[in-house]
Design brief:
alpha+beta, three-stranded antiparallel beta sheet
């Protein structure tokens, strides 16, 4: 299911007119901080006439080591790098399948 969500997210971002803003929101549950990562992008409305901003949830479970801004940046960067490496590994596997 998560792969389908990633594919849909990539599709929406690829066809977006412009990426507007990166949003984060951090909460603490049971003394453990976690981040939500969202991207706002410009797309056309349902009529295709007027550009509107839409929000896409990239992740709801990024876990920084603490609540500092530096830890948040490092956690987001690490999450993106891990996702990128996962996509590269999937691509290599697909290329090597006969």
């Amino acid at each position: 299911m998560f792969s389908i969500v990633e594919i849909l997210a990539a599709y929406h971002l690829a066809k977006a007119i412009d990426w507007g803003q990166l949003h984060t929101d951090m909460s603490t549950a049971y003394q453990s901080p976690f981040l939500n990562l969202l991207i706002s992008y410009k797309d056309k409305d349902d009529d295709g006439k007027c550009p509107v901003f839409k929000t896409l949830i990239v992740s709801t479970c990024i876990f920084p080591v603490d609540e500092s801004s530096q830890a948040q940046v490092e956690a987001i960067t690490s999450f993106i790098e891990e996702e990128e490496n996962g996509w590269k590994m999937d691509q290599q596997v697909q290329e090597n399948v006969p």
